[in-house]
Amino acid sequence: GTGVNVVTTRTVVTAVSQPSVTLSKSVSNATPRTNERITYTIILLNGSAGTANTQGLGAYSINLSDTIPVSTTLIADATGVPTAAYGTLVSTTTAISWTGVLTVDRPMTITYSVCVTPTNAGIFEGHFVTNTAVFSDRLAASTLTQTAGIQVTGVPTITADKLVNASTVAPSQRITYTIILTNTGTANRTAVVTDNVGANMAS
């Protein structure tokens, strides 16, 4: 008789998990002094690793930006140049930005350092400086933000001067002393002044 060929087909469906991105940001010292160097660390993680029946998906068309606060100055020397684990990192004096494909379960870490700048107006003891990283995924139309804040610890710089209105005087002549304290630092301090009246003098 005529043989009949039976063909069996099987369709395998593999589910693709969507990217699941998390963003974190931290600072090495939350209470720095003026002129002190601090380091920010930003971590992007795509946790869509998948399971036995799913396939993880990289995150594409993404961007991360971070504006350097006006109260700080970006350090771009050999010891503090901004770095990224992978992808493309661009830095200027006012901002850093990163673009690339966020690989599944491969953290993308950015580090950069700044100096708290006392020459800018308002940078005194107790001053708060906030720094925010913004992540955007154009394909998923999603945005994440994380902020790391510092509170500046000021440093007082006090100088003292003492003046007298005459360098030579006659007996019983009145003279006037003037004491001037000046704080050119970045923190207020309580000062106590003592001045002993010299021998052969009366106040």
What attributes characterize this protein structure?
203 residues; five-stranded antiparallel β-sheet; 0% helix
> Which of globular, elongated, flat, extended, rod-shaped describes the shape?
rod-shaped
State the end-to-end CA separation.
138 Å
What is the H-and-E element order? EEEEEEEEEEEEEE
Number of helices: 0
Main structural class? mainly beta
Main sheet overview: 5 strands, antiparallel
The average pLDDT is 79
The percent range for strand residues is 35-45%
Helical amount among residues, as a percent range? Answer: under 10%
Radius of gyration, in Å, reads 32 Å
Q: Low-confidence parts lasting 5 or more residues at pLDDT below 50?
A: 50-56
How many beta-strand runs?
14
Would you spell out the secondary-structure blueprint of this structure?
Blueprint: E1 15-16, E2 21-27, E3 37-46, E4 54-55, E5 59-67, E6 72-75, E7 83-84, E8 88-91, E9 95-102, E10 108-116, E11 128-137, E12 142-151, E13 158-164, E14 177-183
Parallel strand pairs: 1-4
Antiparallel strand pairs: 2-3, 3-10, 5-9, 5-11, 6-10, 7-10, 8-9, 11-12, 13-14
